[in-house]
Amino acid sequence: MSDRLFDNAINDWLESGSDRTPPSAIDAVLLAVKTTPQERDLRIPRRFYQMTTSMRLGAAIAIVAVVGIGALIVFRGPAPGVGGEPTPSPAVLPTATPSPTTAAQAVADRLDITKWTTYTSSRYGFSIGHPTDWTERPADHSWTLPAAAPSGEPDAMGTSAEGFIAPGQTVLVSAWSVVVAPGTSAQTWMVDVYCPSISVPSASDCDRLGPGGPRVTPVTVDGHAGVLARFAEDTQAFILVGSRMYIVACWRPEDEPSVAPYGGATRLLEGYISTMHLLPGGPATPAPTTRPS
Amino acid sequence: MDRDLVERARSGDQQAFADLVHQISDTLYGVARRILRDTGLAEDVLQTALVTIWRKLPHLRDSERFDAWAFRILVHACYADAPRNRQWAMTVRALPLERADTTDDFRSIDDRDELERAFRSIPLDQRAVFVLHHHVGLPLVAVAETLGIPDGTARSRLHYATRALRTAFEASRQQGQKAEERLA
């Protein structure tokens, strides 16, 4: 078998197909970039790129000085009072030990997920914890797009998501999942939901993704990578596993008093997703539901 | 690569990064598509890689090395995303049947099919070396440097990948010859 024949076949096969990037992929990247901060370069260079003779001399003197002082300390023996007789210390007046702030302790207690109750959603294929004093509001029909697109308003979700309501109905956390089209990412999904090309719910929904939009940070949920997007009005976590997107949302602004007892909306949501487990078999086949007319 | 563009993007200029994306996306997409053999997956990986590039750009010390650095991020994104999505990878692809009007054309289609199958069966790290060397045209030393692996490792990965493809190609040719003999 000639090498040329093989090389030609390899070249023919390897170079087939189009390398043109789908425009939607570029759009999604540029959208994500608008809301993704760059990492700060905090590394300190180990050495100057160009060291002059005087700089080298200075560095050498510094090294000698450090080594010399170190040696002096080591060979001089213990300092007075160290290893010798204990020196009597002046009496210390008893003072009140500052106790941990009660507010911080209360937040820690509320976010102690080991004390949370577990809720299992066979409709959406996951289990998730919630504080014991919260009320469960199970979904009574499956979530679809765009009929119930989340618009930052809890009511927009209706009862299509599993809901968890804080005492006094001050906070709502929703959790649901949906099958997405191949190639969907968290970023493109947000665009699909908030900026649909048809039947736009409102311009402000789309604005949510523009400049000053969500601050996106990576998270891991039950071993799966996802993102946590902090919008001005709410915080949502998106976890894509195969063709299914799992979403958990806290419908409150970060610094609203209602979420302060939990350390803010983000910390509360982090508590929720840290208890989330995906059911191995995925969601059960949803039973036919009748939606209120 | 436009060094000025890289420097501006590195200092947080989003428009410069957008221009950079338009310059490099086709090349990166082509590499991801060839390594993963799946256009949808390649698109996902490209997006992940480009966002990572944006995030980590301030850490890039030498803008002259941007291309190699970007390739490395892309290949690592391929490693990270491919296992999760393996079960959904498409194994069907369109063959140019309308052109297959001669024995050579049929043979070519069979060859491609066998090469495709063989390539999908080899590990991703071997595929990455093969694509960077044969498609991008990087010398093996540059491939090793790009991927952060020793030269010898790059050489052995290329060797195993080439051997798998050659075996598949020869098998395809032998089958083709036998089929022709039977027809004759």
Name a few traits of the molecule.
heterodimer, A: 293 residues, alpha+beta, Protein Transport Mog1p, Chain A, 7-stranded antiparallel β-sheet, 3-stranded antiparallel β-sheet, flat, disordered C terminus, B: 184 residues, mainly alpha, Rna Polymerase Sigma Factor, Chain: A, Arc Repressor Mutant, subunit A, 2 domains, 76% helix, 0% strand
Task: Give a description of the structure.
The N and C termini of chain A lie far apart (72 Å). In chain A, a hairpin with a 4-residue loop joins strand 7 and strand 8. The longest helix of chain A has 23 residues, at 53-75. Chain A is α+β, with helices and mostly antiparallel strands and 293 residues long. Chain A is built from eight helices and ten strands. Chain A has helices at 3-14, 23-35, 53-75, 102-110, 154-157, 186-194, 203-207, 265-274, and strands at 117-121, 126-130, 135-137, 162-165, 172-179, 215-221, 224-230, 235-241, 244-250, 277-278. Chain A has a domain at 110-278: Mog1/PsbP, alpha/beta/alpha sandwich (Protein Transport Mog1p, Chain A, 3-Layer(aba) Sandwich), CATH 3.40.1000.10. Chain A has a seven-stranded antiparallel sheet with strand order 3-4-5-9-8-7-6, with helices on one face. Chain A has a three-stranded antiparallel sheet with strand order 1-2-10. The model of chain B is unreliable at 85-101 (pLDDT under 50). Chain B has two domains: 3-88, Rna Polymerase Sigma Factor, Chain: A; 97-183, Arc Repressor Mutant, subunit A (Orthogonal Bundle), CATH 1.10.10. In chain B, helix 2 (14-36) crosses helix 4 and helix 7 (140-147) packs across helix 8. The radius of gyration of chain B is 19 Å and the shape is elongated. With 184 residues, chain B is an all-alpha fold.
